[in-house]
Amino acid sequence: MSFQQAIAGLNAASRSLDVIGHNIANAGTTAMKSSRVEFAEVYAAAASGSNSVSGGMGVTVSKVAQQFSQGNINSTNNALDLAINGNGFFQLTMPDGARAFTRAGNFKKDAQGFIVTNNGANLMGYPTDTAGKRTSSTLQALSVPTGTVPAKQTTTMTARVTLDAKAAVATAADDLSKYSTSLTAYDAQGLKTEVGLYFQKTANNAWNVYSSVNGSDPKNSTPFQITFDTAGNLISGGKQTMVLSSPNDPNQKFNATLDLTEFKQVNSSFTVNDLQQDGYTAGQLTNLSIDDTGTLMATYSNNQTQAAGQVAMVDFRNPQGLGITDSGYWFETTASGQPLVGAPGEGIFGSIQSKALEESNVDLTAALVDMMTTQRAYQANAQTIKTQDQVLSTLVNLR
């Protein structure tokens, strides 16, 4: 029986060395999860009864279990490098259509603009609107935006201005430019439409507002009036509809709301505090970033930033029940359970760090110590065989 015990020990030690060697070989593999060998004793049932056992039969490998502890996160300069900080996996669609999962976030962009792994598997995520709100719960292959973002015609203009309460009431001959400001709006083709606003005090707490479009004379415009209460707060005329025109064709008219509700009149010099409008010209993609919620944010040459999807994450009730294939891909099994789908930072899911990669969680020092310990175990089992052989030889040589 000693031979069986020793052979079982040799096999177990050999298997352990295989696993340790695999861990060491992948110490530099992105998001690799180390494994450990779990042993179990083996006994033979005694013939005298089912509740008693004879001597031990040695050892067996009961399981090679992966360890899903967090690996260190290492910064990179690639926007498509993603590290998971916490629980979860990226969901992939393999080239053959099969579903797989990974922690390795070293993604690339393929010729069609899709975000893929080195093996061509697509990273899956949620579609979103330009503000980043999900538009569907059905996952799709994520892609990097290409081409241009189209122009948007101005529909709203907002001004925050402080008017001088001590300004003199104007006369018809006064220069309108004394209290004025301007902003740039855009027509449907993204062409700049210059809008000027001119303020003329007509009475205590009352002002006329003249306008110009694309350099027209403001005196030819029809003014509207804004009024203030005794505390200097606007009480009328705060929102107006302005008729703008394209710089290429004055007959191409479009309306835009002018919001002056944040105007104040106080004993202070004329001050323009803020000017905003919601139109823009067409723009080319200049930068892509991914925030900690997994939302892809595309920045364009017209200073517009728009969401282009959200990275999905999945987790399992029993990650150690996952099956594993080459290239660090896992697949679901009956033991792992169904994937639980969500997004970074939600519920049980960890966050995502862009321009970073999770390192292997292999502890090289511990692995080398384990290797030496396992080597000693192998040598000890070999010594058991050698000793048993010597005992048998002694018996054979008895006369």
Give the count of structural domains.
Answer: 3
Largest sheet: 10 strands, antiparallel
State the total count of DSSP E strands. Answer: 30
Rounded average pLDDT? 91
- Portion of residues within helices: 10-25%
Globular, elongated, flat, extended or rod-shaped: what is the shape? rod-shaped
Low-confidence stretches: none
Count the DSSP helices.
2
Report, as a whole number of angstroms, the end-to-end distance: 24 Å
Strand content bin: 35-45%
How much is the radius of gyration in Å? 37 Å
Structural class: mainly beta
Function: A flexible structure which links the flagellar filament to the drive apparatus in the basal body.
InterPro entries: Falgellar_hook_FlgE_sf (IPR037058), Flagellar_FlgE/F/G (IPR020013), Flg_bb/hook_C_dom (IPR010930), FlgE/F/G-like (IPR037925), FlgE_D2 (IPR011491), LlgE_F_G-like_D1 (IPR053967)
Subcellular location: Bacterial flagellum basal body
Domain Flagellar hook protein FlgE/F/G-like D1: 83-146
Describe what you observe in this structure:
- It comes from Pseudacidovorax intermedius.
- Residues 83-146 form the Flagellar hook protein FlgE/F/G-like D1 domain.
- The model has no long low-confidence stretch (mean pLDDT 91).
- This protein folds into three domains: 2-69 and 360-396, no CATH class; 73-149 and 284-358, no CATH class; 156-277, Tick-borne Encephalitis virus Glycoprotein, domain 1 (Sandwich), CATH 2.60.98.
- The strands form eight sheets. Strands 5, 6, 9, 10, 11, 22, 23, 24, 25 and 28 form a ten-stranded antiparallel β-sheet that branches.
- The chain is rod-shaped.
- Helix content is 14%, strand content 41%.
- With 399 residues, it is mainly β.
- A hairpin with a 7-residue loop joins β18 (239-245) and β19 (253-259).
